[in-house]
Amino acid sequence: MSAVLRLAYSTLFPVTTELALSPELVDFLTQGGRAILFGEDGEEYATGVMRPDRVRDETPETWRAVTERVRKLAGTAVLALDADISAVHRLHRLTAPLPTREETHAMAQEEFETRIQAMAQDARQLGVNLLLSPTADVVAGENPWLTRRTMADDIAEVSRLAAAYVRGVRRAGIASTLKHFPGNPVVTGLPAIEEAHVPLTMEALKPYFAPFKAGIDAGAEAVFLSSAIFDAVTPAVSGSISSDLIRVLRDELAFTGLVITCDLDHRSTVGTKRLDQVVVEALQAGADLLVVSPAAVPYLGALALAIEKAVDERRLPLERLQSASAAIDRVAS
């Protein structure tokens, strides 16, 4: 296997909805893959409640067995999951409880940070080293995707809580992720299954950068891009493949950490293109770690080959691939 192909594998971030490694994921990790996202199924995502059989069968021992196996196969790796207030907490009853949205608003900031730290310390004990949280979005209008899934409805309050969440996670010795940049105050549909737009100008979007900036200043190690289509850029494309929005993140918000896409096979991102095209576009745009859903796991090899081919054909600079892999290294452990 070429060194370029191993680098290509390292930028892929497959989702598994089960606490297990399929044969495809084992192969992925032995070929150079170094990141696994432990996700939830559609109903769990929608309700924020884990299935009863998951709660029954997943134990600290089963989590540690899987995360240790990932590291045995891949060496240092990114092992990530959601730990959201008002949305999905993938580790359900296996960590110190997250506060509810209402409890969060009533807490002193130090108490909130301590509660987040306790949860993150328990996650670390299970082998997790990256939380795909907090949600830094603020809903300001029609939003079938994120309504009731954010920490607050006020920009200043979400900014305060995002920074406090990041500080609490850092105290526990693992990494946090701000999502879903550049913010989705209004969305016309569900990006996973529809061509959903954020129909705002860049000037109208700018106030919603504030929670991301607060989290970045607090030390967030990663930022997760939106899968919605942003009319603020030309041509209008998904946030996950927008070089303009990633440039804003890097230049205006001074973010130097790991840039993660949303699921690249979401309808708003992939559109009518092939996924092997879109993974290359995401890297070309400046993303580092490329999320693909469980449905794409059987095709991880083909996606890695597409990235290698793009480098060979000089459509993707080798330096861009190396930079992405180095960003992943800084979070993996």
Secondary structure elements and their pairing?
Blueprint: H1 3-10, E1 12-16, H2 23-30, E2 35-38, H3 42-47, H4 52-57, H5 60-74, E3 78-81, H6 101-106, H7 109-125, E4 130-131, H8 155-171, E5 175-181, E6 197-198, H9 202-205, H10 210-218, E7 222-225, E8 229-230, E9 237-238, H11 243-252, E10 258-260, H12 267-270, H13 275-285, E11 290-292, H14 300-312, H15 318-331
Parallel strand pairs: 1-2, 1-11, 2-3, 3-4, 4-5, 5-7, 6-8, 7-10
Antiparallel strand pairs: 8-9
Helix pairs in contact: 1-14, 1-15, 7-8, 8-10, 13-14
Oligomer: single chain
Using the coordinates shown, work out and report the CATH topology: TIM Barrel
Beta fraction: 5-15%
Q: Could you give me the name of the CATH homologous superfamily? A: Glycoside hydrolase, family 3, N-terminal domain
Number of strands: 11
Q: Helices and strands: which structural class?
A: alpha/beta
Largest sheet: 8 strands, parallel
Number of helices: 15
Average pLDDT level: 97
- First-to-last CA distance: 24 Å
Name the overall outline: globular
Number of structural domains: 1
Low-confidence region ranges = none
Name the CATH class: Alpha Beta
The helix content is 40-55%
CATH level-two architecture: Alpha-Beta Barrel
Spatial sequence of strands, sheet with the most strands: 10-7-5-4-3-2-1-11
Succession of helices and strands = HEHEHHHEHHEHEEHHEEEHEHHEHH
Radius of gyration: 18 Å
Family: Belongs to the glycosyl hydrolase 3 family.
Keywords: Glycosidase, Hydrolase
EC number: 3.2.1.52
Enzyme class: hydrolase
